[in-house]
Amino acid sequence: MQKFESTKQAEAVFGSLFSILAEDEAFTSALRENDMTVRLLHTKPECRVYVSADAVELGEEVPERSTVTIKMACDTADALWRGELMMPSAVATGRVRIRGKVAKVLELIPILQPAFDRYADIAGEHGIAGGK
Fold it and tell me: Which pTM does this prediction carry?
């Protein structure tokens, strides 16, 4: 059974999460310094997120072009943000697919800590329970 009931719920969770990162100077500086944009394509349910140093965009109208595109199920994203699944393992097993420079994505993981710290609370506020 999927944790996320709707696109609206997924957009609320992941939109809130990436808004926290957009306010973090270390994160936005890293994106700017690397001239990096990230497009996240979540499935089950569908949720699109585009992150640049200047904005977070959600929905069908997110830009098609990005430096890195990451595709995964919403439940996989939930497990990653909770620390139950590690990105290298998720990529190796095909649960996460990355287009662009994988090394750049892995370099960003340490500066994502503010989002990791807040994810469980954000998910809970939107009705997404912890655990499997």
Answer: 0.91
Token duo for residue 53: 């140093």
Q: Which CATH superfamily is 7-123 part of?
A: SCP2 sterol-binding domain (3.30.1050.10)
Residue ranges of the domains in the chain?
7-123
Helix (H) or strand (E) holding 117: helix 113-125
* CA contacts within 13 A on the Cβ side of 66: 27
Rounded to whole angstroms, the Cα distance separating 20 from 12 reads 12
What is the tens place of the pLDDT at every residue in 113-127? 888 899 999 999 999
**CA of 60: how far to CAs of 55, 76, 122, in Å?**
16, 20, 22
Q: How far apart are CA 62 and CA 51, in angstroms?
A: 9
